[in-house]
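Checklist before submission:
- one chain only
- standard amino acids only
- sequence pasted in full

Submission:
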Amino acid sequence: MRATANAMSAARRYRRQLSLPEQLLWRLLRQVRRDLRFRRQHPIGPYVADFYCAVAKMVIEIDGASHNHSQGTDERRTAYLHSVGLQVLRIPAAEVLADPEAVADALLRRCERVTGPSTTQPRG
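Returned file contents:
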């Protein structure tokens, strides 16, 4: 699942130009507890995932106007990601724009179901 040089270069470039839905979601996901750490614009093989949660082996794609992928490209990308053992969750950009907190909460719950309950205890 090693990233290609092109994907790594593209990921760096994409991190500097997040779409508005990606920015809104990233602000919320970057603050979550450490056991569900998310990465933005993460290179995987020849592709760049909008968001990636390693412990849940989950790729999150925000689908909207900023993505210039044809349906065939999305299908090949999804097939590749599945072939390396990753789940792919597609979220319409309009949903993120309408209620980013609800989308972030749903993502966290979904990732928690895959990974199990947190064993990290808050420090007091």
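Reviewer check: Residues 34 and 40 are 15 Å apart (CA to CA).
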